[in-house]
Design goal:
With 336 residues, this protein is of the alpha/beta class. It is 37% helix and 19% strand.
């Protein structure tokens, strides 16, 4: 069974998908929403201690555009029966994602509460407490891209919640290319005359398309972009924009504002969990030299692994055996 949900496009086999309603959720700002929807999926087999608590739960936080994600295609982590039986995977669609509680799905649109990455973590923590009250400690958290921002935030704000963290192409602050892209998105939205209109007009749809084209380039390596023909790039771009057009400009706006505020400088050293930090060489959205390697000094119990893809895209076969071995070796050191 394949689950492919618009907004995250997670591709994982043998999962159970569900929705949960939290009676209310309070933001850091103090605003409260009631009847808050949380979408999630689970896969694998829970293991219990003598008190009936689940001890092998791994929380997964995806990228913004999941089909251009390594972990969404990393079926070896959940498809292999032996591995799947060892872990209990929980994917939670974040606050602000249209699968869960967001500006578009609540119909609040531009009146939705501003949120931070700590709000997104509190949203997931509350869900876990209410839905899985027998998870006293998370086994591990895996995040990629913006999901990595969540993972680092969780480790900083609640360092005793988990045993390990795995982050792919994530950083502790928004800088460089990421910052420029986020500021450009902010500018595109701010110049839209229809943003505060009661009608979702054509101009807003065109703005989403423009934003999608802007974001697109960051999901591929320099090597891929420089060595692909114009026809190949047109194909990649068309697929990406078609998928992104399902997104709502208000969801884009609030998430982008959240990203612009993301900065864990002064907090990143709070992380206690053993951490595996993976960088993709040549990946435009996350510079290995400036955003990945420094984390080895900032997080005490951490390992840095840099993967060198030949093309880094998910249309061609890529040899990920080295990276998959690294992931399995890291998780395998923890006994459950």
């Amino acid at each position: 069974m394949i689950i492919n949900h618009i907004g995250c496009d997670i591709i994982i086999y043998n999962v159970e998908y569900g929705k949960f309603i939290m009676e209310s959720f309070e933001f850091e700002s103090g605003r409260v929403l009631e009847d808050v929807v949380v979408s999630y999926f689970i896969s694998g087999t829970p293991k219990y201690d003598d008190d009936g608590n689940i001890i092998n739960a791994i929380v997964y936080s995806p990228t913004l555009q999941g089909q251009y994600s390594f972990f969404s295609e990393y079926r070896g982590l959940v498809e292999n029966n032996e591995v799947r039986d060892d872990y209990f995977f929980i994917g939670i669609f974040s606050l602000g994602n249209p699968e869960s509680c967001s500006p578009s799905t609540t119909d609040l649109r531009y009146n939705f509460p501003e949120y931070t990455f700590k709000d997104r973590i509190n949203f997931k923590k509350q869900f876990l407490t209410e839905k899985f009250d027998n998870i006293k400690k998370i086994f591990g958290i895996i995040g990629e891209g913006v999901g990595g921002y969540e993972t680092f935030t969780w480790g900083c704000e609640y360092p005793d919640d988990m045993e390990f963290l795995i982050v792919l192409n994530g950083s502790y602050r928004v800088s460089g290319y990421n910052y420029i892209i986020a500021k450009c998105i902010e500018g595109i939205i701010d110049t839209s005359d229809d943003y505060y209109s009661d009608i979702y007009g054509t101009s807003l749809s065109k703005a989403v398309e423009t934003i999608s084209r802007l974001i697109f380039v960051g999901y591929f390596s320099k090597n891929l972009l420089e060595n692909s023909s114009s026809d190949e790039l047109d194909m990649f771009l068309e697929d990406y924009v078609d998928d992104a057009l399902s997104m709502d400009i208000y969801d884009f706006k609030f998430r982008n504002d959240c990203i612009l505020k993301y900065n864990l400088e002064g907090k990143i050293s709070n992380i206690k969990a053993k951490s595996l930090i993976i960088g993709m060489e040549g990946y435009l959205l996350n510079n290995v030299e400036t955003q990945v390697l420094p984390l080895g000094d900032l997080i005490e119990d951490s390992k840095i692994f840099v993967f060198h893809p030949k093309r880094y895209n998910y249309y061609d076969d890529e040899d990920y055996s080295e990276l998959i071995f690294e992931l399995h070796s890291f998780i395998g050191q923890f006994e459950k």
